[in-house]
UniProtKB/TrEMBL annotation:
Segments of this protein annotated with the region Disordered: 1-20
Pfam families: Oxidored_molyb
PANTHER family: OXIDOREDUCTASE MOLYBDOPTERIN-BINDING DOMAIN-CONTAINING PROTEIN (PTHR43032:SF4), PROTEIN-METHIONINE-SULFOXIDE REDUCTASE (PTHR43032)
Natural source organism: Brevibacillus invocatus
Superkingdom, taxonomy of origin: Bacteria
Domain Oxidoreductase molybdopterin-binding: 30-178
Entries under CDD domains matching the protein: arch_bact_SO_family_Moco
Name of the protein described by the UniProt record: Sulfite oxidase-like oxidoreductase
Signal sequence region: none
Record-linked InterPro entries: OxRdtase_Mopterin-bd_dom, OxRdtase_Mopterin-bd_sf
Length: 198
């Protein structure tokens, strides 16, 4: 009988009730933001429970040390895309700039047009998380989050905010955009935490 060990291994990487895709679907609520001049139309605000709030220009973000991470994307709607390579600014390079206060326990990511996603601070700070400007060696396309998107490999991909513009540190958990619409506060794909009641 035909036996393909690499296919077997990959199957282990697909969480329950997900299907592998080889394309790169585009999924979001609302319009893709358009920028003609990042210097005047874009900044990244880091605020909330921090010793020092900062607002960075795109040039300042891109001047921070860079890193890489790989992930398997698992979208809550059921598709998974394996072996993605991301390049950008590791999360610790950004948080170093503000010094997070000890009372901070949760993070709200703020994206263009008011879209938000929440996650625990511990999950936000997981090594390997980064603010990406490249996917598989290419500059992000606008529909995949250019100029900057968050990537958190271990949660359903809706927590990986595209077009991120703000990082807010909070004491208490708050619902982001999809969480207000019934999605799970945490979103572990291996436990199938899709909806609020899962
Ligand atoms: N700003 C913003 N980021 C977002 C979303 C969104 O609606 N707005 N959707 C999320 C969801 S549900 C998924 S699956 C991924 C999709 O990323 P992609 O379009 O690059 O595949 O983006 C996430 N980040
Ligand atoms: Mo998604």
């Amino acid at each position: 009988m035909f036996f393909n060990p690499s296919a077997e291994t990959k199957q282990d990487r697909i969480p329950p009730n997900q299907k592998q895709t080889t394309g790169f679907p585009v999924l979001h609520y609302g319009e893709v933001p358009e920028y003609t001049d990042l210097a005047t139309q874009w900044n990244l605000r880091i605020f909330g429970l921090v010793e020092e709030e900062v607002t960075l220009s795109y040039e300042q973000v891109m001047a921070l040390p860079k890193g890489n991470t790989t992930n398997d994307i698992h979208c809550v709607t059921g598709w998974s895309k394996l072996d993605n390579e991301w390049e950008g600014v590791p999360v610790e390079e950004v948080t170093k700039l503000v010094r997070i206060k000890p009372e901070a326990k949760y993070v709200m990511l703020h994206a263009e047009h008011g879209w938000t996603a929440n996650l625990p601070l511990k999950d936000f700070l997981t090594p390997g998380n980064l603010f990406a400007n490249k996917h598989n060696g290419e500059e992000l396309t606008p529909e995949h989050g250019w100029p900057l998107r968050f990537v958190v490999p271990h949660l359903y991909f809706w927590k990986s905010a595209k077009w991120v513009r703000g990082i807010e540190f909070m004491e208490k958990d708050k619902q982001g955009f999809w969480e207000k619409n019934g999605y799970n506060m945490y979103g572990d794909p291996w436990k199938e935490q899709r909806f609020a009641w899962d």
